[in-house]
Specification:
By secondary structure, this protein is of the alpha+beta class. Helices cover about 25% and strands about 25% of the residues. Bound molecules: glycyl-adenosine-5'-phosphate (GAP).
Length: about 550
């Protein structure tokens, strides 16, 4: 129950303070689409900028980083959202990128079969499975209510129902005849699962038939693979090197849910790292650990963040390793984690698919999938995507390590992790409860707030001067409205790490109070030292 309460408070704060709004809200919203408000856009940009700086522009290609097998280079890319349809045929998305959906003949609703949870219940020898789609915290209540209704019982008869302990999802059931669908009143109204391709289709140009059909990309990765040769030929990079891209992706999720966690439009931050096949296992381990550490360095730590290596049976056979970085989001059942990022060893699957044609992932060694005429089912580009190593005089198709993260999921995890409620002394020393976002200062939308204690005696003038000094260096706000306690509370709630207060003493000795959001420590420092002090604090926490 507590977890869902927390989530409700986080969602409410996100809306109230302008982090996240429902898309097209004035028209009732559009399921699976979200807008970032004035503070949300800054938080998201800070996440993406931290990723880009740490992975790409700030990368030191002359040093061997901890855990890396050698030095390496990084380059960036920004590809289009709509690409040649053949890209998706060769990548496998056209045939294989689907979820299983189930329709309810009674309610006409559609569900993803692995997302309908429920429990078996028996009454007077009749055993049925009651399915639900409500938030985890309300599941028990919903199941009880609907089972009572189904068996024509009243609330006081609840103990006559005999529930089986374990929750299951519809994907674990082979027969739906005894299933009560999440919005149904009778049993057996759910259809068997059917494949549903998640790619959004659109039409390019004036042709509305299949000739003009194209797709909105469901991942940014393929844009990197198809530009591999361009990057190699136009820059000085040599293997090992990575290409990074941040951009929108689109998936027509059957049941978008859990706030922004599963959206239909979202942003990915992906790297395709190209290396020699013999070195790929070492590079995989490097990227897995490096990416995990990145979240920890930005404040996600403790038991809610974990690195989970896939079991061998979960791996595609061309992959020697895949790991997920996961976070225990408050909307999940206790003990469950949601994926923030996947790090996959993809072998030469992608480059070869775009060279030779769609590979059949079940073949070993990988072979091109053929149609009934014995020709490639989907032709590749025919372009040579192999790599020639000048030093070893060796030619090979590089192997790929793919760290693939979601910017929206990262934001949601940082927001959930930062959210806390505690007590602080007010101006009179009495305890006052506060809501605070303990965001890492690099991510905070506003770094500093400048507050004149009162709106007179020359304090606003000094404060405005300081605000103007800070502004070229960091995002800062000036606030003179309300009591200073209220103003601190406003800044705590949006995660501003530092407040600078101008008071009576400032007018005597030109010093201000610097208040730290987390420790609540207050120190005095000269007005002229503020910019340097905050820049130091920001860059110190950068490393
Ligand atoms: N190129 C590999 C790839 O796309 P993925 O696991 O499907 O792998 C990578 O996606 C990341 O993208 C996920 O870990 C998640 O952070 C984000 N992501 C995927 N689907 C999403 C969705 N519907 N809504 C929000 N983020 C999503």
């Amino acid at each position: 129950m507590q977890a869902s309460k927390d989530m409700e408070r986080i969602v409410s704060l996100a809306k109230r303070r302008g982090f996240i709004f429902q898309s097209s809200e004035i028209y009732g919203g559009l399921n699976g689409f979200w807008d970032y408000g004035p503070l949300g856009v800054e938080l998201k940009r800070n996440i993406k900028e931290a990723w880009w700086r740490d992975m790409v522009t700030g990368h030191d290609e002359l040093s061997i980083l901890r855990g890396a097998p050698s030095t390496y280079e990084m380059a960036g890319l920004d590809c289009t959202i709509i690409m040649h349809p053949q890209v998706w045929k060769c990548s496998g998305h056209y045939d294989l990128f689907h979820d299983f959906m189930i329709d309810c003949r009674e309610s006409k609703k559609r569900y993803r079969h692995d997302q309908v949870r429920g429990r078996w219940v028996t009454y007077q020898g009749k055993r049925i499975f009651v399915g639900t789609q409500v938030e985890v915290a309300h599941e028990e209540e919903d199941l009880q209510h609907r089972a009572l209704k189904f068996f024509n019982l009243r609330a006081k008869d609840a103990e006559k129902l005999s529930w089986e302990l374990e929750f299951a999802t519809l994907s674990q059931l082979s027969d739906f005849s005894e299933v009560l669908g999440p919005d149904a009143k009778s049993l057996g109204t759910l259809t068997p699962p059917r494949e549903f391709n998640l790619m959004f289709k659109t039409y390019v140009g004036a042709l509305s038939g299949e000739e003009g059909a194209a797709f909105l990309r469901p991942e940014t990765a393929q844009g990197i693979f198809v530009n591999f040769k361009n990057v190699l030929d136009s820059s000085r990079v040599a293997i090992p090197f990575g290409i990074a891209q941040i951009g929108k992706s689109f998936r027509n999720e059957i049941t978008p849910r859990n706030f922004t966690f599963r959206s239909r439009e979202f942003e990915q931050m992906e790297i395709e790292f190209f290396c020699h096949p013999e070195k790929s296992a070492e590079w995989y381990r490097y990227w897995r650990d490096r990416r995990f550490q990145w979240y920890r360095d930005l404040g996600l730590s403790g038991e809610r963040l974990r690195l989970r290596d896939h079991d061998p049976e979960e791996l595609s056979h061309y992959s020697t390793g895949t790991a997920d970085i996961e976070y225990a989001f408050p909307f999940l059942p206790a003990g469950e984690f949601g994926e923030l990022e996947g790090i996959a060893h993809r072998g030469d699957f992608d480059l070869r698919s775009h060279m030779e044609g769609k590979l059949d992932p079940s073949t070993r060694p990988l072979a091109v999938e053929l149609n009934v005429d014995g020709k490639p089912k989907y032709r590749g580009s025919g372009k040579d995507l192999s790599y020639f190593d000048d030093q070893t005089r060796q030619r090979y198709v590089p192997h790929v390590i793919e760290p693939s993260a979601g910017a929206d999921r990262a934001l949601l995890a940082f927001l959930c992790d930062a959210y806390s409620e505690d007590e602080v002394p007010d101006e009179d020393g009495k305890p006052r409860s506060r809501t605070v976002l303990k965001l890492h200062p690099r991510l905070s939308p506003v770094k500093a707030a400048v507050l004149p204690l009162v709106k007179k005696d020359g304090m606003p003038e000094v404060a405005v001067g300081l605000y103007r000094k800070l502004k070229p260096h960091m995002s800062a706000v000036y606030d003179e409205k309300g009591s200073v306690g209220r103003r601190y509370a406003r800044q705590d709630e949006i995660g501003t790490p530092w407040c600078l207060t101008i008071d009576g003493q400032t007018l005597l000795d030109n010093t201000v109070t610097l208040r730290d959001r987390d420790s609540l420590e207050q120190i005095r420092l000269p007005v002229d030292a503020c910019v340097e002090e905050l820049r130091d604090r920001l860059s110190l926490r950068n490393v």
